[in-house]
Structure formats: C-alpha cells, structure tokens
Design goal:
Length: 339
C-alpha cells in the first residue's frame, strides 16, 4: 500500500514539475528569448523591461495558459469517452466529435464575419457544443447498430472526414482579409489567444472538471461493468448521458478556441495510466488533466520554435507523438486477445 502511495505521489510530482517547466519554457523561448530572471519582475510589475512585458503578458503567457487548460480538458474528454465506450482508442478526434464542433464554429465564424457581426467566445463554445453533440448523436446511434468497436471507430473517422471536407470548403470560399486567423484555427492553433479567452475557457473547463471529479465514485462502478453499476444503484442511462454532455463540453471548448487538436484525447489517458499503474478515476481525473496540459505545452513549444519563424499547426505535432501511442495500444490489445 505504501509503495503504491509513493508511486502516486511521485507521478503527480513529475506531472506538476513538467507543467511548470514547460509553462516557463513557453513564456521564455521564442523569436525574442526572455531571461527566466525577468519573469518574476514581469508578473509582479517590479521594474521589468517594457518590451519583455508586452511580449509575455500580451502574447506568450495567455497562449501558454490556454495550451495547458485546453490540453488538460481534451485529455479529460478522451478519458470520459474511453470510459463510456470501454475502449482505449475512443477519443474526440477519432469519433469525429472534434470535426463536428469545428464545422459548426467555422459556419458561425464565416456568417458573423460576412455580416460584420461581433463574435463572442460564448457563442463559439455554444456552436462547437452543438456540432459536438450532433456528431456524438450519430456515433451513439451507430453503436446501437454495430457490435464491433473497430467498425464504430471507422464510422467516427468517416463522420470526421465528412465534417472536415465541408469545413475546408467553407474556409476556401470564405478567404478574405478579415478572416486570416480562420485558416490557422481550422488546422489547430493556440495563437491569437487573449486574456478574455483564457478567463472564459478557465471557467468552462474548471466547472466541468469539478463535475467530473464529483462523478469519480460512479465512474469506478461503471468501469466494473454496467450490470455491476446497476447493482450499486447507479442510473446507468442518466450517467451515460452525463458522460456524453461533459465530454462534449470539454471538446467544444477546445475546438472553439484552438480548432481541432488530434490524438491528445487518446494518447494522454493511456500514458497517464501507465505512469500511475492504475485506472482509478479519483486519480486519473486530475492526472489526465495535468498530463494533457504537459503534452500540449510541449507540442506547442515545438510548433512555435522548430521551424521558426514558420509555425506548425498544433495537430501536426500532437499527431507525431500521439499516433505511435495509438498504434502501440492496438498492437498491445491484439496480443492480449491472442493470449
């Protein structure tokens, strides 16, 4: 028991340190390198250089916080979907949920810009949530028809391709001087994040995180199987609806601000489970959030700096590190079934 507790403590300590390290690196490294010693001066307004202050507080710090918050939310969304479908390769990206959210947000963005309307962050989140729920509805309907999880994943991928194709069509014909950021957003990017965006995503993700944490006990029962959960007095039907809603809110929040971000929702929960050596929700919920924050901060740092001044889309980098994890999961599952 002490050995397990020690492992959990060490794992949380590693994740927290990594989040802080990558947060500092994201703030300091860029086209203008900022000394670490300047960061406390900037944060506390204690005689810092004005140029450094503008770069950190106006661009890098809100972007780094967004990468941490949205990355954590996306990993948590993936964890909920994997629990819902009892499958380790279920996630917002593979099931087409992110693509559905992306489609609705792009429609709203183009419509508002075309009519010179002001676009609020809340409207974008609502649009993304509607898109996510529509695609999630299709996936759930398909799950009732198909017995094999592999076919369900393929169906989700196909739904995602259809939504992405429509989005690309909209973006192509909406090319205008006023919507330069729409192209970057449609490929996945944390650029252009403001403090107002950060405050809204923090509220949405924070409230959802608390809700999910309160569900840790029912999640444990649900992981044991639906029959066991029913015997424990859990209303499985309502609980499944709640899982769908919470995972869709997190996916919608990420897509609204950063566009589609691939593989984080699949890879991070699996990596975190291996690190902790357990699947207990009470540990996995905060651990997945920290793991997602670390992963996205690391990937965003590479996206900004690897080929500077050219910036890669965040999905390009997350796919490079996330896809091998998915391949490993599939091979590992096949070996387990063979045994």
């Amino acid at each position: 028991m002490k050995k397990r507790q020690g492992r959990y403590t060490a794992a949380f300590a590693i994740l927290l340190v990594l989040v802080l390290v990558f947060l500092v690196l994201n703030v300091c490294i860029g086209s203008v390198n900022i000394p670490v010693t300047e960061i406390p001066k900037i944060l506390f307004g204690n005689g810092a250089d004005d140029v450094y202050t503008d770069i950190v507080m106006g661009i890098r710090f809100p972007r780094a916080l967004a990468a941490a918050i949205l990355g954590g939310g996306l990993a948590l969304s993936g964890y909920l979907l994997q629990t819902f479908f009892h499958n380790p390769i279920a996630g917002p990206f593979t099931l087409g949920i992110s693509s559905g959210a992306k489609l609705m947000v792009s429609l709203v963005m183009v419509a508002s810009l075309g009519n010179a309307l002001k676009l609020s962050s809340w409207l974008m989140i609502i649009a993304a949530f509607v898109g996510a729920m529509i695609c999630m509805g299709f996936v759930i309907l398909m799950s009732r028809v198909m017995d094999q999880m592999s076919m369900l994943i393929v169906s989700g991928v196909m739904i995602g391709y259809i939504c992405s194709a429509i989005t690309d069509f909209i973006v192509t014909f909406a090319d205008d001087a006023d919507i330069v950021n729409l192209h970057n957003w449609s490929k996945g990017s944390f650029s252009g994040i403001t403090w107002n965006n950060v405050s809204i995503m923090a509220i949405v993700t924070g409230v959802t995180l608390i809700w999910i944490f309160l569900l840790s006990k029912p999640l444990s029962a649900y992981q044991m199987g639906e029959s066991y959960a029913k015997n424990m007095g859990l209303n499985v039907q309502m609980f499944r609806i709640l899982l769908v809603l919470l995972s869709s809110v997190l996916s919608a929040c990420v897509t609204a601000f950063a566009g589609p971000v691939s593989f984080v929702g699949i890879a991070v929960p699996h990596l975190v489970k291996n690190l902790f050596g357990t699947a207990k929700p009470i540990l996995m919920i905060p651990a997945c959030f920290l793991g997602g924050a670390t992963f996205c901060l690391f990937c965003d740092l590479l996206a900004r700096t690897m080929f500077a001044p050219t910036e890669l889309s965040i999905s390009t980098v997350t796919a490079v590190f996330g896809a091998p994890v998915v391949i490993y999961i599939m091979i590992h599952r096949k070996k387990e079934k063979a045994e």
